[in-house]
Amino acid sequence: MKNALRNFALQITIPVLCGLVALNAILVWKNLKLTQRATAHRVEASEVQTDISTVIVDLQDMETGQRGYLVTGDSSYLQPYNDANGRLGDHFAKLRSRLAGKTVHERSLETHLESLADSMMAEMKETIRFREAGYRHRAFLIVNSNRGKELMDEARASLRALSSAQAGDIAKYDREMRESFGRMVKESALASCILLLVTVTAFAAFSNYRKRLELRYAQQTEELRATRLQVDRFTSTIFHDFRALVLQMRSYADALLDVYGGYLPRQGEEKAECIQDGAGQMNRLLDDLSKDLPSEASAEEAEIRLLERMSA
After folding, report:
1. Domain spans of the chain, in order of start
2. FRET pair for 235, CA 20 to 30 Å: which of 39, 98, 185, 308?
3. Contact between residue 46 and residue 115 where contact means Cβ atoms under 8 Å apart
């Protein structure tokens, strides 16, 4: 029973090792996928932060260009306003696209921000139109109403809320990446320790099994040599005794024919000649058998081949 259990354990060692290697690879792959997902989300949140920053810059450039033109009346001050006005639509489109998979609150903040930007742009266009028409006082009355400042403050508040949400997402994804990486290291280390333990145990078991096979091989070799020696002795004894008996029978037949050949009836003489011929044939057969007997070296080679087949 113990030998059967030991053999079964040796047979399942290699599949167990392969299974542990596969399990380790699966755990590493799983945690890498989680890390990649968290990294992708973090990059997306960082890109949203960048889009928020570009929108803030666009609104500030538009406000700066408007105020400079209203004060100086120099149209060159409208260059930042015109550039930012041309970029703002694209930047809002990118921001809206990146927020499509976000929460409802974040999407509502973006929608409200676009509405505020439209109101700000409408007010800026109106003041610029009045200034271009020469109604500088009317333009400044609109500015002094603080409507533009209120819209800008509200837009900044919406942008800060969006930026804060993205900062929270970045912190969450950073935490997930750290946790996933730490879990990957722990699981991989644990699986590697188990794999190392099983490998060492397997090598020790195989080494012990090899030693037991060598011991069994040596024992079987000695037993086979002892058996062969007994068989050789038995064969030699039978061979020589039987040859002696055959030679004795032939000598009796020869003596019978030489001494009493003239007194024997014809049938008796024929029987004696048959015994003589049979003894000669048996003697020649023994000679042939002695030639066919294996030598000691060939017998040892046969023993080694037999033991190898038995061990296998």
Report:
1. 2-208, 223-311
2. 308
3. no
Structure tokens given for 274: 């048959």
Q: What is the pTM of this model?
A: 0.53
Inter-residue contact 280 to 254 (CB < 8 Å): no
Burial 50-75 (b: 16+ CB within 10 A, else e): ebbebbbebbebbbebbbbbbeeeee
Query: What kind and span of H or E run contains 135?
Result: none
In angstroms, the CA 53 to CA 187 distance is: 40
Q: Distance between CA 58 and CA 63 in Å, rounded?
A: 9
Exposure string of 150-184, with b = 16+ CB inside 10 Å and e = fewer, is ebbebbbebbebbbebbeebbeebeebbeebeeeb
Structure confidence by residue, pLDDT tens digits, 122-137: 999 999 999 988 888 8
Q: What is the per-residue pLDDT across 179-199, written as a single tens digit (0 to 9) for each?
A: 877 877 787 778 778 877 877
* C-alpha–C-alpha distance, residues 181 and 163, integer Å: 27
To the nearest 10 degrees (0 to 180), the angle between helices 78-98 and 104-132 is: 160
